[in-house]
Each structure stands twice: as C-alpha cells, then as structure tokens.
Design a protein that fits this description.
The structure is a single chain. The termini are far apart. The relative contact order is 0.11. It contains 15 helices and eleven strands. The strands form two sheets. A nine-stranded mixed beta sheet has the order 8-7-6-5-4-1-9-10-11, with helices on one face. Strand 9 and strand 10 form a beta hairpin. It has 423 residues and is an alpha/beta fold.
C-alpha cells in the first residue's frame, strides 16, 4: 500500500484544486469569552458575559453545521476563541467534529486544560494543538494577561499535553511587554522539543478600538527582531523573491481580496456569522439552520469578488503579501478596506530596505525613493544593520536562571517601551 506524507498530500490537494472554489479549510470561533484579559487581544470578552454566552451557537447548531461542512467537502477545521475551553460543552463539540473525520487544530492559552481535558484529547487526538505563551517569567506573562496565577496554569496545561504525547506547538505575540523574553520562550520550546513561532503583527479590536496598539512594537523594533534571527531573515528574503516572481507574470488584481478567503477558506464566529476571515467583522451572513452552503455559494462568493474601487499604492505593491495589508486590516485600522495601513507599509518597506530587497515602483508611496518618508527608512535601516552587526560580535549572555538575554534596540532609537524593567 502506497503511503503519502501529510505535507505532500496537502500540497497535492491544493494544487489539484487550483482556483476552483471549495471550502476546504474553516475557522470556527466557539466563543469570545476568555479567563485572561490580555492587553493586545482583539476579541476577548469576560468569562461570565451572560449576553455573549446566550448568543453563542448551541451544541445542536454546531453539530448541524459540522454535517453541512462535511457535505460541502471541508477537511480542515481550526477551533479558536476567546478561549475554546471557556465553553463547558466544547469537548462535546470537538468530539462530534472528530468523529466526522475532520483534521482539527486547536488554539488555546492552555490555562483551562485539566487532567480530564488532556485525557479526552489523548483519546480523540487532534491534528495539532497550539498554545500561546505570553512570557517566560511569571511577572512578564501576568503583566500581559492581567490575571495572577495564569502563568502557572498555562505551564500545567503544557505539561499535561506533553505527558500524553499530544501534537503540541508553542507560539507568542511579540509586544512591548514581552519582547525581551522571546529568546527564553524559544529556549523553553526547544527544551520541550516542540515547535515555536512568534508574530509581532497585532490588530485593533474587532470594534475598532485601538487599545491593543498601545503594546504594539514599532516598525523598527519589529525589523530588529527579524535581523536578530538569521532563519527569519532568510525566510523573508525567500518569500519576497517568490512574490516578486509571481507578480512578474500576474497583472494587478481587480478584486480587493488576494488571500484564500472565499476560495478555499472561511470563518464562522460564535454567533453563526460567516465571513472571509476572523478579522473581517463588517460583512457576514448567518449560516445557522443548515444555511452554510447557501452562504458559501452566494454571499461569500460575491464577497470574494468585490472589485477594487480606486487605485492605491497597495494594488501593485510587491510587498503587499509580506506586509499583511488586507481588507480586514484596512477596516480595523482605517474603517476602509482599501485604505493602506501606514504601520504595515512602514514596517514592510523598512524590512525590505534592511534586508537589501528591491521594491519596484508601485504608485505614490511615501516610503519609496522620492517619497516624503523614504529618508526615515534609509536612516532606520542603517541603524538596524549597524546594531545587528554589533550584536553578532557580542558574546551570548545569560541570566542567573540560565535564560539567554535577547539583544534589543537601544532605547534612544525606539519609540515604545520594551518592558526591560521586567527581570
């Protein structure tokens, strides 16, 4: 019997699908309630929010949705929140999905994983589990989550999953509060023998509140992290080259969406509203009551085909895929899906300049040569390259508890607090 590795299977399936619309991959938010009150979170609600809880889809509605997804050809599901285990019946929902053969990934903060939950997951193994680790020390972790005792609960959750050999990965969001502990978190993951990744791109809240941006790293701080990790820098170079080659044979898009949303992916919120992705909050269709297929073939098809209404610097930009600009980010930051997000543009151009990547002209962009802010990009890139070179010459330093110190931008060149007072 011939066996096909998962990666090869997934790639072959997506290549075979081509541009045909098929809802292969779905993200389902089961709740937005969460026991943590993280400063950077874009959607969390209080654990005991009765209004939110009463509006969430019921168990029976979830089961009906799963049947509709299976009939439509969906294979992969991501369950996320809020915190998925904030729902007392989540294991019932998960088990119903597992018995229907879906390949399931779980996103959790790990703080609510009990022995019973870990045992159940061991009996009904998910495809993957990703736990967000907000810091390597109790002080930093709980400074970001706002809940005393949450650090130890997270570690116990990690330990329970590890003890059962479940497919675990760790990740973090890099913000001003915890960036000095990124190396420590990576080392912790290495000790456990699990993958680790970090991402500095955070968004306003879904109600467009800008409060999470109070802890967002500056563009210079983000690119500094890229330069400190040779593997990460190499990945950006390879990705930029891939995008550049694709754009060379592809004309500028005529529709505002360029991701897989509405082609092979979709998102459903806790209340049954389906949209292009979890960040897209303004345009949804209710898919409860067996209406998923109607929503996929009607609303989401039309949403995916929304045309570009005006030329912007983003339309023909070779960095667009790497910067993260998309209609959802435009809505959250500017209340306009086509309005360029300055932060993302600034970060992408600085990264490109620091890594020596050429950016072809793409309209009136203030960060490109001749633009009003290009000088700022050149100065910042020069600083970053000098600091990266100096850091490479310095010996690795360790704290008393054995954690490696992460080099950061000199305070004089950064505009945000890096939280280095936390030890």
């Amino acid at each position: 019997m011939n066996r096909l590795e998962y990666g090869a299977f997934s790639q072959a399936l997506h290549e075979r699908q081509g541009l045909a619309r098929l809802p292969l991959t779905g993200t389902i938010e089961v709740t937005r309630r969460c026991p943590l009150v993280c400063q950077h979170c874009y959607n969390n609600l209080p654990m005991h929010d009765a209004t939110a809880r009463s509006a969430e889809m019921t168990y029976d509605e979830h089961v009906s949705l799963l049947d509709a997804l299976s009939a439509a050809g969906c294979l992969w599901l991501l369950y996320t929140g809020g915190e998925i285990f904030a729902r007392r019946d989540f294991l019932d929902i998960y088990t119903a999905a597992r018995r229907r053969g879906f390949l399931i990934t779980l996103f959790t903060n790990g703080t609510m994983i009990t022995e019973r939950i870990a045992d159940h997951l061991a009996a009904y193994r998910p495809f993957a589990i990703e736990i967000t680790l907000y810091g390597r020390t109790r002080e930093t972790y709980e400074r970001l989550t706002g809940i005393p005792g949450s650090f130890d609960k997270c570690l116990r959750g990690i330990q329970r999953l590890q003890a059962r050999g479940l497919p675990l990965a760790l990740k973090t969001v890099a913000v001003t509060v915890n960036r000095h502990e990124l190396a420590g978190m990576q080392a912790f993951a290495d000790e456990l023998g699990v993958p680790f990744k970090s991402d500095a791109m955070i968004n306003p809240r879904l109600d467009c509140s800008q409060s999470p941006l109070n802890v967002r790293l500056t563009p210079e701080e983000v690119v500094a992290l890229d330069l400190e990790d040779p593997r990460r820098a190499d990945e950006w170079v390879r990705f930029a080259d891939h995008v550049r080659q694709a754009l060379a044979v592809t004309p500028p898009a005529e529709t505002i969406y360029q991701c897989g949303g509405g082609i092979n992916t979709f998102s459903i919120d806790p209340y049954g509203g389906m949209s292009i992705c979890v960040l897209s909050e303004t345009r949804k269709v209710d898919v409860r009551g067996g209406r998923f297929l109607d929503g996929w073939t009607g609303f989401l098809k039309a949403e995916r085909a929304r045309p570009v209404t005006r030329p912007t610097k983003c339309v023909a930009c070779a960095l667009k895929s790497a910067c993260g600009m998309c209609p959802a980010n435009g809505e959250l930051e500017n209340r306009d899906p086509e309005a360029p997000v300055d932060y993302l543009c600034h970060t992408a151009h600085l990264r490109a300049h620091a890594l020596g990547l050429e950016v072809a002209p793409h309209g009136a962009c203030e960060y490109c040569p001749g633009g009003a802010k290009h000088g700022l990009i050149v100065e910042a890139a020069s600083r970053l390259q000098s600091q990266a070179s100096a850091a490479a010459q310095r010996p690795v330093r360790y704290m008393e508890d054995g954690r490696r110190l992460l080099h950061v931008i000199a305070p004089a060149t950064a505009t945000g607090s890096c939280g280095c007072s936390t030890r």
